[in-house]
Protein 1
Amino acid sequence: MSAAPTPAWLDALRRDARARADATGLPTRRDEAWKYTDFALSGAAAYPLAARWQDAVPASLATRPVAGGVPLVLVNGTVVGDWGAPDGVTIGRLDSPDARSLVEAHLGAVIPAARKSLAALNGGLFTDGLVLRITAGTRLERPIEVLSLGASDAASGPLSFHPRLLVVVEEGGFATLVESHRGTGAYFSNSVVEVALAEGAGLDHYKIQDESLEGVHVATLGVSVAARAVYRGALLQAGSRLARHEVHASLCGRDAVFELDGAYLGVENQHLDNTTFVTHAAPGGQSRQLFKGVLDNQAQGVFQGTVLVERAAQKTNAHQLSKALLLSAGAGMSGKPELEIYADDVKCGHGCTVGDIDETALFYLRSRGIAEADARQLLIEAFLADVLEHVSLDPVRETFTAVVSERLRRARLGKEDR
Amino acid sequence: MTTMSGPNEGTGSRDGAGAPLLAIRDLHATVAGREILKGIDIVVPAGEVHVVMGPNGAGKSTLSYVLAGRDGYEPTQGEVVYQGQDLLAMKTEERARAGIFLAFQSPVEIPGVTGVNFLKTAVNAQRRARGESELDAMQFLKLARRKAKELDVGEEMLRRSVNSGFSGGEKKRYEALQMTLLEPRLMILDETDSGLDFDALKTVAQAVNGMRSPDRSILMITHHQRLLDLIAPDCIHVLIDGRIVSTGDRSLAHELEKSGYAQFAGQAA
């Protein structure tokens, strides 16, 4: 596999990552963190690396931004087109000379290297990528939107690519990032996003994973949150035949805040994995995670959440909740929440539930004349309501809701076919 | 004067009072494989208020659930004819759209579904089924606010999740609100008086009385006398151990209040 020509300083970083990836190998189910998700079985590791994309954005993939933001487009991991950066923001390719100091300071540093993940593989193989820098004190009104598009067809055969994004928000800066993943055909998207928030900085980060249902999507998100910085994330996982969203968050400064709301919707034979590692390394941090999953047909869900509170992290407030709704006997859910606490003055809570539709509520709605399918839809939307309520950007919430409705319709069709 | 008679005789004699809206004949039903209803006969002519009274465990709620079509409440014998249709062959939502409304003894809390969304979806589902145009958000809100005011249902209750965190009285008023919005032909009131203070009871009774009309019937399930003082019934059925053991006029309720259900114990065996 040959990578694109890049400057020597970037090549050095890449060689390091590649060596690490080669040394650890690809994850298997024998690895604790991959116990419930069989990446090897997906066959994605064998997909050849996509060539650097030379053309315009394929017509089959509309690139309209979700929230009217500044659009940045990647096709098969290659940055396509141009952009105008708002005041106070630098947007550049990873290999541009301007990006060098940021890249050298942060790339690969946010995600712990000791853990085996596919992030190192991305580091060794990415063909292109973007760096966003919000300068100190800049409060950005308009969202920045990153659209990662995957494209393969019968002629190309399945392809793999490794989108890479680095977001640095300097002291007191604030930005909204909307990340969308879509595509057609069979492909393996192995995305890595690193977010470094300096003191008092903030990022609202929305991610819509609506990849091709033939696709495999593995994403590693690293977030480092400095003192008084605030990260708020909202995630929708609805696409891919196999998907994993793996988060490594470190609250490394005093009074840092990390929030993540996730909704996932699996139909047919989808396998959707959400794995999070949240580390409280400094006092007064607050973390909150809420994951809600709806699984129909034969879909399988995974939630693994580890919250680590280090000895120094007194007065930590950490909460984690995972709830899954199974809509058919073939659907399943596995996983485990885990708390590791080494500080003695903390408030931590976690919960993990799996249930099915409340038959009493269903009867109540139907007894008022609401058709069973519509009543189910109401109850499913109600189940997801608290996650959706945390999506404060209206167009993003509407997109979440629209994707959910479309998937549920698909799940129903899947049942009627049988 | 109490008319003591067998169930078939009693209800049979009422057939002439008007076209029956609902006719239950020899209805048997099981719950979890156990027979709870063991041959029910009740005929409710249009415009009448019928009461089913009986001790705990007699099968009163089972009867209301079987009529509304709840899963797990399985009719095994007999028939229910509603407006000339085979009610038992209809789905729950079809029964509702045909005008059957069950006011629940314990209205169900549904967190995450707002009152407005729920009520509008229900009203429009029924309007659609009747071939009427759907109400848009503004039209519906106007209607809902007006009806809510009549029932002392606060506007904030429309914005909140269905029944979530409502007091007992609020829940029953909310049921009454749904009833006035949906304008059913047959109202089944399952222990509507349970857990209500007198003021709330009066509000609900007023709503029910306000809806009485020659083509609308009420089947009231209760074991208390007090609702009958507020909603005057035409006919009382005594249900014991899954059977109607006596049918009569209003005085039967007074009789029951005086002497209890023990007098019918022999007939139930």
Note: Chain B is about 40% helix and 30% strand.
Protein 2
Amino acid sequence: MTAIAAIASRERRTGGAPAPRAGLYPTPRSPHRPRPWTPYVFLAPFVLIFGTFVLVPAVAGLWMSLHNWDFFLPDRPFVGLQNYVDLFTPDALVAQQFWESMRATGLFVVLSVPLLMAIPLGLALLLNQRFRGRTFFRAVFFAPYVLGVSVVGLLWQYLLNGNTGLINGYLAQLGVTEPVPWLTATPWVWVSLVGVTVWWTMGFNSVVYLAGLQNVDEALYDAAKVDGASRWQQFVHVTIPQLRPVILFVLTMTVLASANMFGQSYLLTGGNPSNETRTAIMLIADVGLEQFRMGLAAAMSYLLALLLIVVSALNFLFLRQKES
Amino acid sequence: MRTTRRQPGTWVRYLLLTLAAAVFAFPFWFMVVGAFQESPTNTPGQLLPTSGWTLGNFAAIDSRIDLLGSLLNSLVFTAGVLLGTVTFGLLAGYAMARLDFRGRGATWVLMLLVQMVPFQLLMIPLYVQITRGFGLGDTYLGMILPFAINTTAVFIFTQFFRALPQEMFEAARIDGASELRIVRSIAVPLVRPALTTVVLVTFIGPWNEFLWPFLITKDATLQPLAVSLANYISNVAQSTANPNGAILAGATTLAFPVVVLFVLFQRYFTASNIGSAVKG
């Protein structure tokens, strides 16, 4: 079974390239073979925009991070690695702020990712069965994803408000007399941020899981049933291995999304209480675009990016190894 | 994981799903009801109001921010991003799926890389580049260009192009059609569902995008609705008679087009379409 999974996922990774397929259908020579430069022309606009708006800023950011780069100052002296050193000097204020924001980011990742992996999978399993109203339920659970973060933040700010919010109103009816400070005190701020994020984005993960589930060969389940496997055993030995590439994809994307969380904190808690929910991106935006210390902000960006690359690579290695 | 009908678990499933769906839909209900109320309250008892309906909230927010103008800006921004995404995505997807060339593997890695680089990490140098380098601050072009390519779109197109039979392309080539002609007259008409999926999936992004247009536009007449709404909340809401109602009316206006599109084209948001992007 694992061999099948390995082959299936390898096929997915490399994709069925058309080249070998062409060999199956020998074609007569024609005057209009695609010219050798045609593919490059077709790819040119994509690559051009990628170069201009991803690659150039990425390099420019690195360059900025090595300077004392202020948007409004004419002098932007080269400072070498000073910006990075500052971020590793324990008693520097920026270092404290930065690592505090990294802690908040890490905490959010650790709290949100397991929920965003598990709940959508459960939902996808439910929705993968045939029953009346399936389309309706799928639509309802996906719906929040179409909202923008501004609308999401706005709505939940009303709903979660400590004094006048509806959530506390309902809790009061249930006999909770003390209003819960959803947006102003730990640990409730984390419950709110994670809960809102799960509500907002889990529909998308469910849809991706559903796609994976629909590609699982029914014959594998039948074979497992013949062998007397229980529902749970089928799940562990058929569903999970078959879904592994999809799980890897969802995990990587979810970790990246959570690590780059900005809007929810910005709009719901404003980073409070005492900057405990100020995420790294929020601090970077503040230092770079409010205080205009862009060199320092760029250095922070690079440290965060480096960490994310390491985490993504670890995810990949870990899940790949299990596969073989 | 097939289930047979009439299992004891059936009603439990419906109960669970219905409860969860109610919780999920609740904020939408709250938003829409509040937008049409004279004084939206937060007391649970008044969630099913029988009186106090008004359209005044929309008039109130329209008097403070140019609702129609902002919607138009959102539309221009979104349309520009879609045009770029579809055109460049189709060309790139066709090359990746149907043409053989050196460096295809490298291109694939490059595209995965684009998907991995979060926009926020580039935003500071990008801001400097667009405003200072290109002088595109306060322009539609400056808003649109950084979003004009979308890897997910390329993946979706590639997947669909791959599924088309090779003979069709060979036949067209024998007839002397150029590759661009083949894309236009054969490939694109055959992948209409992919086109719809890409348009729907990418529509959500720019329509809701807040951070980038917020940074790049200081001129209020150029701001998309997501930005002007946020400005309204932070600046002028205090001076409106019923700020909560007005804010909810603005949020409803912003959410309305996407929700309508989503409901109309729900079947295109299906697992296999979006999932095809994953399996690239």
Note: Chain A is about 70% helix and 0% strand.
